[in-house]
Amino acid sequence: MGRDDNDSSPQMGTALVHSMLEQRQDQAAGGRLVVNGGQPCRACPLADCEGLRQPPPDVRDWIAAFRHGDMRFARGEQVYAQATRPRFLYTVLSGVLMRSRLLEDGRRQIINFMFPGDFIGLQAALDAEMGHAVEAMTNVTLCTFVRERFFDLVAQQPRLSFDLTWLAAHEEAALEEHLVSLGQRNARERMAALAVFLVQRGIDTGIAPDGVLTLTVTQGQIAEMLGLSLVHTNRTLQALRRIGLVDWTLTSIRIPDIAAARAFAKIDGSVFSSRPYI
Amino acid sequence: MGRDDNDSSPQMGTALVHSMLEQRQDQAAGGRLVVNGGQPCRACPLADCEGLRQPPPDVRDWIAAFRHGDMRFARGEQVYAQATRPRFLYTVLSGVLMRSRLLEDGRRQIINFMFPGDFIGLQAALDAEMGHAVEAMTNVTLCTFVRERFFDLVAQQPRLSFDLTWLAAHEEAALEEHLVSLGQRNARERMAALAVFLVQRGIDTGIAPDGVLTLTVTQGQIAEMLGLSLVHTNRTLQALRRIGLVDWTLTSIRIPDIAAARAFAKIDGSVFSSRPYI
DNA sequence: GTGCTGCTATGTCAAATGACAGGGTTGGTT
DNA sequence: AACCAACCCTGTCATTTGACATAGCAGCAC
Known about the structure:
The structure is a homodimer.
Chain A: H1 14-25, H2 57-66, E1 69-73, E2 78-80, E3 88-94, E4 97-102, E5 108-114, E6 119-120, H3 122-125, E7 133-136, E8 140-146, H4 150-156, H5 158-184, H6 187-204, E9 212-214, H7 219-226, H8 230-243, E10 247-248, E11 252-254, H9 258-265
Antiparallel strand pairs in A: 1-8, 2-7, 3-6, 3-8, 4-5, 4-7, 9-11, 10-11
Chain B binds a DNA duplex through helix 8.
């Protein structure tokens, strides 16, 4: 292994490090707010989503008053930088994002991906620093809330508070699954598990209706998610393609036999009830 | 690697598998309830803990009425089995536990450790199956709550609801850190990071006052936490001892220079405010 | 004592994974 | 066209890590 124990050799191409630093700069996202005064929640794109449990009308009205506006980010832009305490919290309205954590020496671990309906910034809401960065993987639109008013939500809307806890607990469960991957599965199993995870979330959130998730994930990102080197990621991906287990290109993921892929990756089929959202 | 890609070779000593199966049987924990009618919360052992934020008196009274009793488990006993939906939720009053997740073929991943003040069973509270098992690493005493009444807590006590979300978010942050370990750190860094994590939690919860955590962790458990083989865990542990970075025996963990260990493991020193508890 | 069990330690070899170096493709820009 | 930036791919070799086999040692029951 080249990460020699403690001398912190460069570890990533300078190009990558460079781009990371650039991203760090346009972190603020300050001026870009687009308040969507018009039809806030009545036209919420999440209302059509099969996989989401819709809030009752009165709660929806409350959210409409609570929410602040919309915001858009382009693919590659950073929504949160690590170790900041931002002003806004978000719900994903459309698009996919990822959260990642950076080590001082440049190594980066992608923690998880966020799909429509997911809530962003819970750690920030609780007066803590963000332990990770959040970056858009596609063009995204986010529903924004003001952090300071977060406690109003908890105090006034036990239903939403419950939902928020629900989301946090299920996010935790997803991280557990990723931990199992990194700790116990070998490279091919990990990659299969990740593919199944992504496609399943795509199906559940309605953005991969026919079982094909259109999402551009570079092999470098896969490597950073799975804790593998870029080269080994490439080879493993090719191996899975050769077997016919997954059909994963730069821009889309397709799994011919998802049950077979689950079995291969040793994923126990826990069925999730439909997710709430805020 | 011996985990050859998909043939699921035995992978663990038969003795270990055997003991796991045994543990699976005494899972119910049904009849062992010890209702502590006397002085429930006034004498709460957590009240003395420096690292915990104490609830205000009225909330404490509410908890006293909400809580159900005490329960004790001996080292090695299982509190929750995986994929069950238990009747009780717990707060750790004393002792240390671990949560782990089992794969069908016997591989096991330890997810995290739980110290006094931690809340157990949030997933269960939200009507989901437990995705993991919970096992006592020492003799423990737990404060029990009835799962069905969980929504009362959310509805009636926004403060506690907030605290619960706080705990969930910070548990998530801990899992993120473990993910970074498994994904980006090599064996020695992982082990140092784990040692620092455990000792720090021990200090914060007052059970390692002099910086020495008395807790018996076998090398097999370390291996299952860090995603390493038992043999490699042994060798790595010896290497760390040789360097003088950690002094980790079967029954205790001591870190001569915790700052050095942090630097070695590349842990960024995020300072946590004091944790709430319920 | 003898056996047994759980844990730690070591030696040897094999497999998984990473490092390094280089080439190829695509797409955008000037 | 020439250049450049991302990204994907391949070959070769080094390192990390795992598998297997075995031994030692403490505790404990009988």
